[in-house]
DNA sequence: CATGAATGAGTGTTCATTCAT
DNA sequence: CATGAATGAACACTCATTCAT
């Protein structure tokens, strides 16, 4: 991920990614970023006119929320009759392509920086949509219970996001498979 | 909340609470806090030798996690046979006594300041314990299913904490009553 | 003017006055001002939140345009029948109380900084009003020639201000007494 | 003035002229000049090794002080017996060929940059010489009054230069025709 | 106990200038 | 000729903290 001969811009982003994840955006000075990247201070501002642009570039270029094309059921790999397994698979493949460092940044800076918040909001929607679709497909009988199905999808989304965000901080750990099974039961006949 | 004759220390904490909630700990200078509190700059350091001590004092004195005495079932107001209602009541009375401002501070500064993180961890445990106990009491039949019951309690905790922390940011809103009902169904029969 | 034990604020203003006059406002860095004043860099901003406030304070506190109370003829020391002498005296006592350094600053920074421009405008008006009143009093006969009298006052103002501002730069020097005599002749019978 | 196919050097000077007039030399960065001129940053330094050379080139190439060949009376269009008219014509045709932007630059940067100051000094001398010659020619009788004539020429020069430089700033406006008439009267019998 | 002047390292940012391509 | 990445000193300004009074 960090080529030995990476160009300066890449090295700056690499350094920022590591520092922002480690100590937060505010506490990572541009001078320190430049130092870590082994480039002169001024070069940071050549590529990123303002410090915030470094964060924006990171979120833009190094996080990707895999969005489901409308109507495609295949992508969720839903198995009719097996809602628990379907959700478990979703938990194992969160539609977020990002390094562990970028994941920390995404959650940590969300409430101070709009661009980060938006990306996080998209992740949230996408997880919710996938969970709902997975449940719809896996559970074809439950027609009348749209509201319950939505609550189940929202609950599963909360667990997944909570896991990424707070579980480490609070020491709480949840087994997504157990939650998947729980929700399957709740929607079961 | 801010008596006309509040003493200096209280006025400093009031100002810090408002500023930390509004713009974050890092972005609130001690000078600004003093200004808001209408006290001279030096006085802040008279009461709080270091800036971080202001945050620690706020968390210590202005957030309180109501902890359940061991074995007391009364406090959760569990109704045997009504797990959904029991959880709903828990959702409505999160065992966290803190102003909305302090709640924001608790979540925002959690991953940078240990003392805040600890308080948040206690809240998390307490919610989990209450949810578990509530389910145990409300659901006396489900003896054999200890693991499932724990997953249910953890799920409910995740939803409640997620609600406080991220729901506003991501635009996702969850009805805790619906989740309570869902979990009750999952544990049913 | 520069006491050996002058307090810090005064020393900062002294240093700024000298530097602004010597090299201009833009070219005088706050660090250099602090160095000249022998105070730490930060102290400049303790007294003057922004660099521009140093200039504003200088203009406010160290230039003074002596304004004529309405209707007072005594102040101009006009001698009826001696317009030339009256104007000469005005030239010798420009109603501007300011050090030579402050005079340079006043003219040099006028077109970039509003507060300076306003002070300069006041000086200009005051000189014009005094010249006009002097001529009115010294020249009681010239009733019908209000327009010519105004042109004469404006001309004299231009010469005085030009003298302060550009004469040194361009190498041109004018004898105000000769101009006074010229104008007196122009208005003469 | 700005041909569609103007070469890079011309475009750089055009941009610098506009920016220097608008915000001053110091406040106009070379990067901004390049941006306005739509040329790469490095090119500015290809044509002008130092930033100051841009200003020097502007003054050299875009301001011109029309200098009177010695002894030529025709150029001032002096009319013997009509000193007022002769001066009025001089006022209307200041021997300075320069755009309004260049005029601002000339006065604004005069006291910080020698080359500008010299050009301004030449303008000043030229106006003075023309005024003096005009008065000599228009007023052939006034031989004995060389001193008074010089004062009159200097006065007229001051009014003209003041007009260009400060009148706008201070709000004072002078009618050169009225001044011309005033001076003519002063030199009259 | 109260005060605000003093301190100096650090912050984000700008900029003229260089130079390899 | 043309280019834009690279450089590093300098800039205005912030800040937690100290301390004499």
Automatic annotation (TrEMBL), chains A, B, C, D:
Keyword set includes Methyltransferase? no
DNA-binding region(s), residue ranges: 29-48
Q: Which UniProt keywords apply?
A: DNA-binding, Transcription, Transcription regulation
Domain HTH tetR-type per the UniProt entry, residue ranges: 6-66
Q: Which InterPro entries match?
A: Homeodomain-like_sf, HTH-type_TetR-like_transc_reg, HTH_TetR
Lyase in keyword set: no
Q: Which Gene Ontology molecular-function terms are recorded?
A: DNA-binding transcription factor activity; transcription cis-regulatory region binding
Q: Which Gene3D superfamilies match?
A: Tetracycline Repressor, domain 2
| UniProt name for this protein | TetR/AcrR family transcriptional regulator
């Amino acid at each position: 991920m960090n080529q030995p001969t990476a160009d300066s811009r890449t090295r700056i982003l690499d350094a920022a990614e590591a520092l922002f994840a480690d100590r937060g955006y505010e506490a990572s000075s541009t001078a320190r970023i430049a130092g870590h990247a082994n480039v002169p201070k001024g070069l940071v501002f050549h590529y990123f006119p303002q410090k915030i642009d470094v964060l924006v570039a990171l979120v833009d270029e190094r996080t990707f929320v895999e969005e489901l094309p409308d109507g495609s059921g295949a992508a969720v790999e839903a198995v009719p009759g097996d809602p628990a397994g379907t959700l478990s698979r979703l938990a194992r493949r969160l539609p977020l392509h990002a390094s562990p460092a970028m994941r920390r940044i995404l959650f940590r800076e969300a409430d101070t920086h709009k661009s980060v918040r938006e990306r996080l909001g998209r992740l949230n929607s996408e997880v919710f949509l996938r969970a709902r679709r997975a449940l719809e497909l896996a559970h074809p009988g439950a027609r009348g219970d749209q509201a319950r199905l939505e609550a189940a999808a929202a609950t599963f989304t909360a667990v997944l996001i909570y896991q990424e965000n707070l579980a480490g901080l609070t020491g709480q750990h949840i087994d997504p498979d157990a939650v998947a099974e729980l929700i399957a039961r709740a929607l079961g006949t």
